[in-house]
Amino acid sequence: MKLSSATRLRLADRIRREWYVFKVDFHAQDVPGGYRKARRRELRSDLTSAAADVGMLQALKDLGPAAALAHQFLLAEGRKLPHVWTGMITFTVILFAWVGMAMATVNALTDAAKQFGGGRSVTVHSAWLGATVTVTHGERLLSAAIGFSPLTFAVFVLVSLIAARAWRYRPAWLQRRQASKAPFTQTGAVREHDHR
Predict the structure, then answer these.
(1) In degrees to the nearest 10, what's the CA dihedral of 53, 59, 61, 62?
(2) What is the rounded CA–CA span in Å between residue 93 and residue 163?
(3) Which pTM value belongs to this model?
(4) Spatial contact of 131 and 98, defined as CB atoms under 8 Å apart
């Protein structure tokens, strides 16, 4: 039974290869997923073949920086693309900031209710960015409620879409339609140039 070149790679070489492929994939995050998947598979195969000839370190050196290769993938796409990962990271950061702010507000309101309450039950609340935090504190009672409005969700989504540059997204049907018109436009431009 003949071993494939992939199985002959040492563990260290496989780790180097996968790390390089991951970096290229991360830098090319804006390239559509299907195209990126095919490029990953092709890159793994090319690196494995090159490593059999010159070694993994030399193969990686010959390819150059991962960011430069990813930039070539972006250029090959031929259009400005949305930054999907930037939008997802922005959404996550905003979400964690909102949760942190909510917890800090609950803590501050709990302290305020303790000071104002004395021996009786007191309810305090605070509102910001469409979110409402309510704390009730009494001698044998402590409750906190956090509510958010559609405004809160809208801010999360809108800021994330702006960070992702979502207006650059084009659905597949629109891409096909524009691709089918492209040859006629180029031919027309050539003819017009020839007449001049």
Answers:
(1) 80
(2) 12
(3) 0.52
(4) yes
